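Human: Respectfully, please carefully check these tokens:
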Amino acid sequence: MKTRHSNETGEARAVAADRLTTFVDAVIAIALTLLALDLPAPTGDTTDAMLSSALAHGKEYLAFALSFTVIAAHWHAHHEIFRYVGSLSGRLTSLTLAWLFMQVLMPFATRLLTADGAFPPRFSFYALVQVLASATFALIIREIRREHLHRSDVTPPEFAQSLVRSICLAAVFAVSVPVSSLIGGTGAYLCWLTAPVVLAVARRVQSRAVQ
């Protein structure tokens, strides 16, 4: 009887984890939709006028591509981790909702990034959203590992890799905030471009440490 009850409890926890993952997928889809709705449509009576209008909105289209890639990367990281999650804790649910809040905030941060006005505040807001999203995801991984909420008895290697990736991304975006005030737009965006290099170095160091 006790074994049956334990099995039913385990199944209920697994269902709860699956429902949270489904909810995350739905919210991410909404965030991506809101991101696309903000795109300005080019106007003009001729082909040249349409092209000129599209070029005039180039920064909005680039910001859309950037944010789409960022949100997709956040979702992919979440998907890679939560396929191992077999049960939830109250703290894990709360952290996931906080992480989702950052994803839903991304369309607004994208509009702000391409709006008129002083550059450092607009850039810093976008960067801070990324810092909080990455830091929150690092806390999610920590909670899963600490409370043993994953399905297997052995912590999957993806957890350590995702944790390092989240910390590195949070650091890169955090550094870009003061750079935007000290150097300006070019230097600040260059900080973001260093993210792939930082992640590659971190993966190499991590693989050597495991060996």
Notes: The radius of gyration is 20 Å. The helical segments are 2-37, 47-56, 58-82, 90-113, 119-146, 157-182, 185-193, 195-210. The longest helix spans residues 2-37.
